[in-house]
Design goal:
Number of strands: 10
Radius of gyration: 14 Å
Family: Belongs to the NR2C2AP family.
InterPro entries: Galactose-bd-like_sf
Distance between the termini: 11 Å
Organism: Phyllostomus discolor
Low-confidence stretches: 105-116
Helix content: under 10%
Number of helices: 1
Strand content: over 45%
Keywords: Nucleus, Receptor
Protein name: Nuclear receptor 2C2-associated protein
């Protein structure tokens, strides 16, 4: 059964935080399910999020909700097992909008449209999501939700 794999024991790191203000824009906001909070990166050529899971997982989906105007045109999902080097799982191409983006089929309701991109199933205990070619001139990324779906192994 597919469910959210990010838990309290999942360690996370991000490339940067806007003005180093972790209280208002920190990584914790990626997973808090609050529509009013977000991770806001600082400027740079690319941004990334690394997740270290407490056990091996099988990833089937990654869902991302950007703020329109602060997304990326290209992303890369990489993974590894037991401290091995990261290897590419898939490249993905998000749209510059506010909707949840995943590899799921789009729902029928237009007010909750989800962009689709394929993410092959992968067994990992570490994931890195890299956001390249950002839509913001300064290279900032704003993400309201980041969900990793799949199953524990």
């Amino acid at each position: 059964m597919t469910h959210s794999l990010v838990c309290a024991d999942t360690m996370s790191r991000v490339s940067s935080v806007l003005n180093r203000n972790s209280r208002q824009f920190g990584k914790k906001h990626l997973f808090d399910q609050n529509e009013e909070t977000c991770w806001n990166s600082d400027q740079g050529p690319s941004q990334w999020v690394i997740l270290e899971f407490p056990q091996r997982i099988r990833v089937s989906q990654v869902q991302i909700q950007f703020q329109g105007g602060f997304s990326s045109r290209r992303g890369c999902l990489e993974g590894s097992l037991e401290s091995e080097a990261l290897s590419k799982i898939v490249d993905f191409y998000p749209e510059d909008n506010n909707s949840i983006q995943s590899n799921n089929k789009p729902p029928v309701s237009l007010d909750c449209y989800a962009h689709t991109f394929p993410v092959p199933a992968a067994e990992v205990d570490q994931l890195k999501v890299t956001f390249e070619d950002t839509t913001d001139f300064f290279g900032r990324v704003v993400i309201y939700h980041l969900r990793v779906l799949g199953e524990k192994i």
